[in-house]
Amino acid sequence: MSLVDLFGDVVRTLWAHKLRAFLTMFGIVWGIVSIVLMVAAGEGLRKGQQEQARNLGKDVMIVFHGRTSLQAGGTHAGRVIHWEYEDVAAVQDESPDCEYAIPELEQDTVLTHSNFNNAAFTVTGSYPQFAYIRSLDVGQGRFYDWGDMHEARRVIRST
Description:
Layout: H1 3-16, H2 18-56, E1 66-67, E2 80-81, H3 85-94, E3 104-113, E4 118-126, H4 130-133, H5 146-150
């Protein structure tokens, strides 16, 4: 059997079983497209998680105030815990492997308005190392520094 005869036999068989041939090819194409889409979705998720982790910061541990869940040290469970200013220095002293221990205050009810719109913003306050720890880039201007902190400069301006 020559190559021309073999090719002619394949074409006649495909023509005789059009539906079967179409469904087989459609199944192969559908499988390839599905695999490509799953790989693309997984890669997109990986990139998104990588970006979120980068935005969170470098080697960050966050400790929130709240209520205790267990009974510890002779006190009852459910006790309210508030961070005080002196606690930051104590955490820094007790954590020699930590480069920075800084407080972070956040308020999410800062209202503002203009002639065109109203909005509520979240405002976060901390020390100048905050930008380094949280990998923040300033779009315009500069991030506040220790000189701003010590002289209590008004560093935020709305235009």
